[in-house]
Amino acid sequence: MSEDLKQYLRKAHDYLSIAKNALSTDLPVGAITPAYYCFFWVVRGLLYEKNIVTKRHSGARDMFSLHYIKTGELPQRFSNDFSVLFERRQIADYDLEGDFPTYEIEQVVEIAENFLMYVEEKYA
């Protein structure tokens, strides 16, 4: 694993910690955005490994799919997970009615953590 990827993954770990801490508060919905950013920083690190830098979240999603999912380097489920987290974050951040049951918020955090762990193991 390159030093650059390690830095991206450290940032992802920071966001995962924030998400997990938010789960134990009176506002667990606050875990959704940092869980998304955990996933996002892992994706950015992977893209950086291939000298790809994007300016928009949608660009990161597209490039991740093109260079990691469609090539078979990573399983399709991670593209699906990225879409789910992106959608949940959009709702949590921008929708006045954006509330989720705790179990669903816990699933979002688990998705981010599983992706981070998978990438750490695969690229160690």
From TrEMBL:
Tell me its family.
Answer: Belongs to the UPF0332 family.
Organism superkingdom: Bacteria
What InterPro entries has UniProt attached to this entry? HEPN_dom (IPR007842), UPF0332_toxin (IPR052226)
Species the sequence originates in: Larkinella knui
Transmembrane stretches in the record are 27-47
Protein name as annotated: HEPN domain-containing protein
Lineage, top ranks: Bacteria, Pseudomonadati, Bacteroidota, Cytophagia, Cytophagales
Q: Which UniProt keywords apply?
A: Membrane, Transmembrane, Transmembrane helix
- Keyword Protein biosynthesis carried by entry: no
Pfam families listed in its UniProt record: HEPN
Domain HEPN span(s) in chain numbering: 6-121
